[in-house]
Every structure is written in structure tokens, then in C-alpha cells.
Amino acid sequence: MTIDADVQLVARDFGIDAALLQSVVDAEGDIVRAVQCSIPAVTTREQALRVTARSAAHAMCDWIKSGGGDRQHAFVAFWAARWAPVGAANDPHNLNANWASTVDRLWAPADA
């Protein structure tokens, strides 16, 4: 799949996989018209790409929360490796070692 330059830029801004965003753009055909079905004020491709990227990020969060437990833990562990890596030079007291478990505990679903 070829990833359009504007798709690559927006995906990078939102921290999402450009291939995911390009897949949605390709599936929709006309991304501006697709987004206008929900948000008629969108008139440019850049606006439509940003709405789509934001929607993907929100959907990802909702998907993680809906699965609770394993999927949530897997996401937090993945994020911890980037956000608070164990052994990082800026963590002399090794607080990052507890980051993932603390976030998991605090972000536990309300019904858990």
C-alpha cells in the first residue's frame, strides 16, 4: 500500500500507524465526504484526515477499556516501555519499574 504524504504527516502528529489511517482513507474513497456525513463543517482533506486520526485514537482507547484486563494490561505494558522504560537514565531511583502496574491499577475498569 502506498501511504500518501499528507496521511503520513497527520498520522505522525497523532502518533498512530499511518497504514491504519491510509486504510481508512482508501476504504472510504472520498474521505472528506465520508467525514462530512457526521461533521458537515469539514471542507478540506486535512480537516478530514485529522478527524479520522482523532477518531482512530479514541476508538483505540475505547477498545482497550472495553476489553479490560489482558488487552488493557498489554497496552499499558507497551506504553510503559516507551513512556517510562525501566533503567532509564532519568530514573535513578528505578521508579519506572512500578509505572505499568500502578497505571494498570489506577485505570482499572469501574466494575472490576
Description:
This protein has 112 residues and is an all-alpha fold. It has two domains: 1-63, no CATH class; 68-112, no CATH class. The protein has helices at 5-14, 18-28, 31-36, 45-67, 69-83, 99-106.
The coarse overall form would be elongated
Distance between the termini: 41 Å
Helix content estimate: 55-70%
User: How many domain units?
Assistant: 2
Number of continuous helical runs: 6
Structural class, judged by helices and strands? mainly alpha
The overall pLDDT average reads: 89
The value of Rg in angstroms is: 18 Å
| Unreliable residue runs | none
- DSSP strand tally: 0
The fraction of residues assigned to DSSP E strands is: under 5%
Please trace the helix and strand order, writing H or E for each element: HHHHHH
Question: What composes the largest sheet?
Answer: none
Secondary structure topology:
Elements: H1 5-14, H2 18-28, H3 31-36, H4 45-67, H5 69-83, H6 99-106
Key words describing this protein structure:
single chain, about 110 residues, mainly alpha, 6 helices, about 65% helix, about 0% strand
Summarize the structure.
This protein is mainly alpha-helical. It has helices at 5-14, 18-28, 31-36, 45-67, 69-83, 99-106.
